[in-house]
Amino acid sequence: MQIDYNTLEKLEKLSHLRVEEEKRKEILEQLSEILKYVDNLNELDTDRLDSYFSTLDGGTPMREDVVSSNLEVSKSILKNAPKSQDDFFVVPAIIE
Q1: Containing structural domain, residue 30
Q2: What's 26's domain CATH number?
Q3: How many domains does the chain have?
Q4: Would the N or C end of the chain have less CB density within 10 A of its end CB?
Q5: Can you list the alpha helix ranges (DSSP code H) found in the chain?
Q6: pTM (predicted TM-score)
Q7: For residue 43, what is the DSSP state?
Q8: 87, 74 Cβ separation under 8 angstroms
């Protein structure tokens, strides 16, 4: 499958991203290569594999969920955020 300029414009609109005019050709080629790779995966015969297939004997190991009450962890994480307020990350609005 090839990505054309119309499809790229739709992707820009859906993602709220703008691709510079001089980068359009490069982006189109990269997206087409990604789709070719994914299309190659369709050639794999997965009919005999179980939906819960795992390379680990016994499946994926699970761990017990433990609630942490250490407030220093969240303070340490928020300290690295560009903006925070009242123990929350502050991010730009994405819905217009």
Answers
A1: 5-41
A2: 1.10.20
A3: 1
A4: C
A5: 5-15, 24-41, 71-79
A6: 0.48
A7: T
A8: yes
